Amino acid sequence: MRNTILAVFIIATVSFGVLTYFFLNGTTVSFLTISFFLTCIAIYDAFIQKKHSLLRAFPVVARLRWVFEEEREKIQQYFIEDDLSGTPINREKRSLVYQRAKTEIETVPFGTQHNVYAKGYEFIKHSLFPTDHHHIAGDRVVFGSDKCAQKYNASIINISAMSFGSLSKNAVMALNQGAKMGGFAHNTGEGGISSYHLQGGDLIFQVGTGYFGAGKTVDGKRVFDDEIFKQNAIRPEVKMIEIKFSQGAKPGHGGILPAKKNTEEIAKIRSVDPFTRVDSPPGHSAFSSFEGMISFLQKVRDLSGGKPVGIKFCVGNNEEIEEMIKAFAEANNYPDFIAVDGGEGGTGSAPIEFTNYVGTPLLEGLSFVNKTLLKYNLKDKIKIIASGKAIDAFDVVKFLALGADAIGMARSFMLSLGCIQARECNLDTCPVGVATQDEDLVEALVVEYKNVRVKNYHDKTIGAVKELVSAMGKNSIKEIKATDVFRRNKGGEITSLDKIYYSEEVLIS
Ligand SMILES: Cc1cc2nc3c(=O)[nH]c(=O)nc-3n(C[C@H](O)[C@H](O)[C@H](O)COP(=O)(O)O)c2cc1C
Ligand code: SF4
């Protein structure tokens, strides 16, 4: 094949050479130049370069494959996917976020595109006597037990952890300003607190295993430091502290900051070397037992001046989680909240096996944590924040039904900033300036426009939750129960979520 391709280019070059000789004009010269250029590339591909077998066999032509491969995601999005396909977030849901963020029309014509008779179809049942959605209560939740001097009255929807590093400074500023405008909280992510987080919005200060903003490097190892932590934790913007054990996209691995995104500025905030890949350790060095964990949580609470302290994880080993909750009950000392992240959770960068095959999906993880808190009489003391692809109001209702008190959203807020799901967050080439440190690309995201969109998306989603609750004939979001949400099982019957997740007898598949 390569000889044929080479022959075609050579014949074309010779032919255009002859034509140029006899009829010299702009067109013949252009064709001669192009064919000569392609012939040179073909010779290089076929004989000189040795790395790519495909190019040696199909000189020049094989390059097209790379172009298509590179643009595959966009071609798929623009020309192939329908409203219900597209992963991880389908077009229908992405469009809804864009519409809510821009306060554009949110209605759809003609009827649902979902197959309501398919296995897995979910819905809520409405009442003959809907309430007035303008008067639905329960969109705030108070975090903090009697051990907290500074309780926090939070929205039921907040921005889940995403650090400056994974996101650009403009994205962080827009999120924080949006949170301020809408009266909800912005989780810093495990990268520490930067000036971009300090735009006036409420912060949940996340402390990961790398202790960025809460520790230092000693003998090459990241360790927690009381003073460094305290300086950040007592900031008035910080309303709660979250100690991260794992996130659903890479449980048991620890955070990854790709070298390209670890700029001088970010390295300074994290006190690490710039332009090196930064891997947070998989586990905490500050404690190694449940007793140690409980003392650490209390220390952190004290150092912060009595702010609510929580832990975040994706459920792994159920027995281990139960043992931990039992230890909380026995010590009568516990975190103020548990943030449960689902295996379907998002990330800026993760190893593929961890993303695809490690960690319990949210609905099972959430219901297990809820059941275990009920079993040890801690449900009214420890709040649950659930995260894992919550995009629309139905997702919110479903998670609340399974026991969540509040919802963390990461990717939907990225979409509200203009993320087009190009999925290049780990490459530093994010085309819309959300997940990159490239200065030119960051400039594409104009904070003054996007901050309002963040607020709009939050407010409109809360409004939509209220409308669903009023359709159910309830007066408060707090009245939502697992018996209110239904799913069609594999036999075609309809089962409520309480039977699926809270009764051992009913299995759906
Ligand atoms: C770009 C990006 C960065 C993230 N960074 C962190 C982080 O620093 N700490 C953390 O606990 N989770 C992190 N997460 C996970 C989210 O906080 C959240 O738990 C997960 O994406 C599920 O929420 P979602 O489905 O609404 O995106 C990150 C997610 C994304 C998309
Ligand atoms: S547009 Fe692509 S690269 Fe940018 S944040 Fe969204 S998914 Fe990541």
What's the short story on this structure?
With 509 residues, the chain is an alpha/beta fold.
Cofactors, ions, other ligands: flavin mononucleotide, iron/sulfur cluster
If classified by CATH, what would the architecture of the largest domain be?
Alpha-Beta Barrel
Q: Helical residue percent?
A: 40-55%
Describe the biggest sheet? 8 strands, parallel
What's the domain count?
2
Unreliable parts: 505-509
Coarse morphology: globular
Strand segment count: 17
Derived from helix and strand composition plus strand pairing, the structural class reads alpha/beta
Average pLDDT reading: 93
How large a portion of the residues is in β-strands, by DSSP E? Answer: 5-15%
End-to-end separation: 51 Å
Topology:
Elements: H1 2-22, H2 26-48, H3 53-57, H4 61-80, H5 91-101, E1 122-124, E2 140-143, E3 152-155, E4 157-159, H6 169-182, E5 185-187, E6 202-207, E7 215-218, E8 221-224, H7 226-233, E9 238-244, E10 256-257, H8 264-270, E11 278-279, H9 290-303, E12 309-314, H10 318-331, E13 337-341, H11 352-357, H12 362-375, E14 383-387, H13 393-401, E15 406-409, H14 411-416, H15 439-442, H16 447-471, E16 485-488, E17 494-496, H17 497-502
Parallel strand pairs: 4-15, 5-6, 6-9, 9-12, 12-13, 13-14, 14-15
Antiparallel strand pairs: 1-16, 2-3, 7-8, 10-11, 16-17
Helix pairs in contact: 1-2, 5-16, 6-16, 10-12, 13-16
The structure holds flavin mononucleotide (FMN) and iron/sulfur cluster (SF4).
